[in-house]
Amino acid sequence: MNLSSPPGKFNTYTELLFDSTKFTCEKLMRNSVEEATRIKGSCNIAIALDDSWQKRGYQSLNGIVTAMIVDTGKVIDFEDFSKHFRCKTAFNSAHGPSCITKYNGSSGGMEGKGVTAIFERSEAHYGIRYTQYSGDGNSRAGSTDPLTKGPSFISEPPNRVEFSNVSGTVVSCVAEGRPRPVITWVKSDGEVIHDLPGLRHIRHDGALVFPPFSPEDYRADVHAAVYRCIVSNSVGTIGSKDIHVRAVLRYLSQNHRICAFPLLKFQYSYATEINAIRK
């Protein structure tokens, strides 16, 4: 909005409010650090990092990078950026040597610079080390070192996967990063899954494979479950959205016709038809 500057007589109160807010913020973040080290019993902390801009996209003049503790979800540090200039002569059309800006670069580069600053001061500020970090799929937090790169998805698994016990299916999860990331699969509750012969296994390229199976081998905890693909390397860890897997059972009747019933419990008779009884 094209509004005039606020009256100068309020500057004193604005500064007092800013100082009080800053003091409270720093105290709460320090308390969060003490809580995290008490829970972990260690000074090695896992954090989640992400950035935000005042405007959508990469054209914003203002941005912020926030660090949260993974175990508690509480913020412990942040770094803010602004490409606005502060000049002694407010009405000059050209900026001079006395004009100051906190950040001079692309809006998209704010995250990498902010992450670097947060990591560099962790020991000086709190006496802790950030040994692990988590970021979302488009995180640029790992791009500060040209020799390393945080993991990112090339092909993320779909939200829903439906298949029949006759055909089976393969759920692909493709990612990149430096060093090469490791792919693991977990259930919705965070449980790391393992191979189940004939029912489920993880392929060498990280894909989750459900081979064809007979109806009597159906297991709800395998064939009607929610999975996530977790990708990690030494820089960080990302996770896919929930993947709802659902198997459709197909039975072969005596006249060899295929009868398909999704997630039903069946009772066989020696007649030519199959009686389906819902759970």
Automatic annotation (TrEMBL):
InterPro entries: Ig-like_dom (IPR007110), Ig-like_dom_sf (IPR036179), Ig-like_fold (IPR013783), Ig_sub2 (IPR003598), Mutator_transp_dom (IPR049012). Gene3D superfamilies: Immunoglobulins (2.60.40.10). SMART domains: IGc2 (SM00408). PROSITE patterns: IG_LIKE. Residues 151-244 form the Ig-like domain. It comes from the Eukaryota. This is Down syndrome cell adhesion molecule-like protein Dscam2. It comes from Trichonephila inaurata madagascariensis. The gene is Dscam2.
